[in-house]
User: Fold this.
Amino acid sequence: MIELLIFGSSRPLLFPFCWESFKKYVHYRKKMNVIFHEDQVFPKESKKVLSYLKKNNIPFESHCPSIGLGKSMDFLFKNVKSSYIFYLQDDWEFERPIDIDLLLWVMENNKNINCIFLNKYRNFKVLNDMIHPQYIYNGVDMCLYHAWSFLPGIWRMSKVIEYWDVRESHPEGYFTNRFGNHEERTDVKFCEEKMGVYTLGKSEDYRYIRHIGNDWRMASWRLEDGKPGGCNDPNRMDYPFRAPWLPKLEKRPSFKSMYSKEEIERSLSEEPKEILEIK
Assistant:
């Protein structure tokens, strides 16, 4: 009924945290088919990933040279046989429990819900002029969202196939805009009827996942001098959004030990404006 699709890109230091946290926090009573796609941005590093996958009996496909995230997704989508997928990239670490059985049951009983994803921030009431009202479906709290985010979550494949098309750069924004432009997606009714994308949890709820790859950006337009881009500023991007009852935040591999003020400001400028205002 659901397949787990994981997309990786030459990050052997990160995926073990992703995989172990998935096994710890994501619960599903049946057997879930798993397929990993390794996009070999840096083949030497990807060999380490493939070795880990073999050791842990995780089925995989791989492309060398790199084909990019959009084409990697297109490649795996063509072989999906289930009604749903759980979408995941290799640089996400789960922090809170997820009940797949419950969420699938909710989606089966509410055909207007096409995607339930896990936020890396809090569930903001308003973000970039978009209103995100809270709903309760079969006892499960969730908030309407204005974009089809490529964050971890459950996707209804019939809806994906209806709108899916691949583009080499910025596949997330391109896919979202196939449903409607920014102005159209400021309308709550449009997002409800046309997209049906929701974030799990109540309004203002804390995040479910941690982006441990914030400074390991591998997309071609994110590389800096042929090396992973982005930067890591946990004081701004972790602590304001993380549930206070969780265990102390542990360090994760960072591409660089230090970042300049300019690097941090550039990375933060790519985040939604409402998030930057949080102190």
